């Protein structure tokens, strides 16, 4: 059940971040990947600044924040933003 919930949160986080940053999602698989990597990145950033995310909503917020940061960094590297 934990894996399925992680994939759902990752897909939702990737979709939200995609809509916030570029106006559209990345497709189902792309949203999952962006959301999962964003969750990892968000966890690192949250721990670094002393925040904790608990529960489903906290995980979603952390994943969205990390995914937005990921999209921003990739955009800077590619020279788009």
From TrEMBL:
Keyword flag Transmembrane helix: yes
Locate the transmembrane regions by residue number: 28-49, 56-75
Membrane topology summary:
Multi-pass membrane protein
Please verify whether the record's keywords include Cytoplasm. no
InterPro entries linked to this entry: Transgly_assoc (IPR007341)
Please provide the record's keywords in A-Z order.
Cell membrane, Membrane, Transmembrane, Transmembrane helix
Give the location in the cell: Cell membrane
Q: Which GO terms describe its cellular component?
A: plasma membrane
> Which ranges form a coiled coil?
none
What family does the database annotate?
Belongs to the UPF0410 family.
For this entry, the protein name equals GlsB/YeaQ/YmgE family stress response membrane protein
The protein's organism comes out as Oceanimonas baumannii
């Amino acid at each position: 059940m934990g894996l399925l919930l992680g994939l759902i949160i990752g897909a939702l986080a990737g979709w939200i971040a995609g809509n916030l940053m570029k106006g559209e999602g990345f497709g189902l698989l792309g949203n999952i990947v962006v959301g999962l990597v964003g969750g990892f990145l968000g966890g690192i950033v949250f721990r670094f600044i002393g925040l904790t995310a608990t529960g489903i909503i906290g995980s979603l917020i952390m994943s969205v924040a990390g995914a937005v940061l990921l999209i921003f960094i990739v955009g800077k590297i590619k020279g788009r933003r």
